[in-house]
UniProtKB/TrEMBL annotation:
It comes from Enterococcus pseudoavium. NCBIfam families: PRK00197.1, proA. It is found in: Cytoplasm. The gene is proA. It comes from the Bacteria. This is Gamma-glutamyl phosphate reductase. InterPro entries: Ald_DH/histidinol_DH (IPR016161), Ald_DH_C (IPR016163), Ald_DH_N (IPR016162), Aldehyde_DH_dom (IPR015590), G-glutamylP_reductase_CS (IPR020593), Glu-5-SA_DH (IPR012134), GPR_dom (IPR000965). Pfam families: Aldedh. The lineage of its organism: Bacteria, Bacillati, Bacillota, Bacilli, Lactobacillales.
Length: 416
């Protein structure tokens, strides 16, 4: 193990002990100051971000991915607002969720406690840095952040600012740490930092997440990719369906809660597909369709088997006509990444069937998948969207970054 990772681990261990003892008011005051400091240093943040943008363009990174990387004055303000929202959320630490008396007259309670030290490996989006740091801090966890090389200067500037705020608040700056070595070797070491890390959370594309799953010996909370679908049922309001599909695909196609496949019931395909083709054409979305859908589309190209399982993160949409809701559900459960799925229907029965049978972290009736977001769900900033079933599923807020311990009150009991 390198000196860097050992040093970060030791410093985080000490910082986590201090952080776990802070009162809620101390944490909130520091978070509010952190938000203000970000806004006060917007120019510095944007200057660092410009270095990353220049490098990304020189390396030929696609425009949609550059958009994920880009910071603006408005996006920095949104990051600061996200921190303020975390400060405003109830503190889960120390909360006793339930208490009961046993037959031995012991009072047993279950209390929320921090996980300890959280490692986060992520790509591209600098807002992850402030979201993750603020959530970990509020939930009493020290955090070690390892961002991608594309956003290195942005992430470093953000962490430097947050560490300065911690110092100004008379707190240990090691409560939020940054891995300033972007080599794969150091990333692999972080995945095996069992002596210090309690959990590792990857955020990024399928390649990163798969690599972490295969390499890590530290427990992993998987935040998956978003191969998401909208199914337009035979009983759908087609104008509503059109608006939902356009929003879910084109509002911001480079994010994980955008859709990648549109499924349409054969009963409405002839009417709906020309409608949605025209609407998506105005957003520059290209269609890849199965043979039944191609009959009703003017400009689509044939879909391949690979298209059904691809997270395009681009202005591309796969389209398939299905004969029933059962075929739609079977297709979704076979190809999806268990992130977000939606049905557009006026049928109560079909809506409930979809909710019950589709296997995903978030399932919608008559709404865009773009709402799968901690902010939109009322959690404030999110640490990620978990697509696994253990510990946490869906947008992960403060409570999902905690564990529990049992506290027991007695008056001299011994077991016989």
């Amino acid at each position: 193990m390198s000196d860097l990772m050992n040093r970060l681990g030791r410093q985080s261990k000490s910082a986590a002990q201090e952080l776990g003892q802070l009162e809620t008011a101390q944490k909130n005051d520091c978070l509010l100051q952190m938000a203000q400091d970000l806004e006060n240093h917007t120019a510095d943040i944007l200057a660092a971000n410009q270095q990353d943008l220049n490098q990304a363009k020189a390396n030929g990174i696609p425009d949609l991915l550059i958009d994920r990387l880009r910071l603006t004055k408005e996006r920095v303000a949104e990051m600061a607002e996200g921190i303020r929202q975390v400060a405003a959320l109830p503190d889960p630490i120390g909360v006793v969720e339930k208490m009961w008396r046993t037959e031995d007259q012991l009072m047993v309670g279950q209390q929320r406690v921090p996980l300890g030290i959280i490692g986060i490996i992520f790509e591209s989006r600098p807002n992850v840095t402030t979201d993750a740091a603020s959530l970990c801090f509020k939930s009493g966890n020290a955090v070690i952040l390892r961002g991608g090389k594309e956003a290195f200067h942005s992430n470093q500037a953000l962490v430097n600012l947050m560490q300065q705020t911690l110092q100004d608040c008379q707190l240990n700056p090691a409560m939020i740490q940054f891995v300033n070595d972007i080599s794969h070797d150091v990333a692999n070491q972080m995945m095996r930092l069992n002596e210090y890390l309690d959990v590792l959370i990857p955020r990024g594309g399928a390649g990163l997440i798969q690599r972490v799953k295969e390499t890590a010996t530290v427990p992993v909370i998987e935040t998956g990719t978003g191969n998401n679908h909208v199914y337009v049922d035979a009983d759908a309001q087609l104008e509503m369906a059109c608006e939902i599909v356009v929003n879910a695909k084109a509002q911001r196609p480079s994010v994980c809660n955008a859709i990648e496949t549109l499924l349409v019931h054969e009963a409405v395909a002839a009417e709906f597909l020309p409608l949605i083709e025209n609407a998506l054409a105005s957003q520059n979305v290209a269609l890849r369709a199965d043979p039944l859908a191609l009959v009703h589309l003017k400009h689509a190209t044939p879909a391949t088997e690979t298209d059904w399982s691809t997270e395009f993160l681009d202005y591309l949409l796969a389209v398939k006509v299905v004969s029933s809701i059962d075929e739609a559900i079977a297709h979704i459960n076979h190809y999806n990444s268990k992130h977000s799925e939606a049905i557009v229907t006026d049928s109560y029965h079909n809506g409930q069937k979809f909710l019950k049978e589709v296997d995903a972290a978030a399932v919608y009736i008559n709404a865009s998948t773009r709402f799968t977001d901690g902010f939109k769900f009322g959690f404030g900033a999110e640490i990620g969207i978990s697509t696994q079933k253990l510990h946490a599923r869906g947008p992960m807020g403060l409570e999902h970054l905690t564990s529990s311990k049992y506290i027991i009150y007695g008056d001299g009991q011994i077991r016989t």
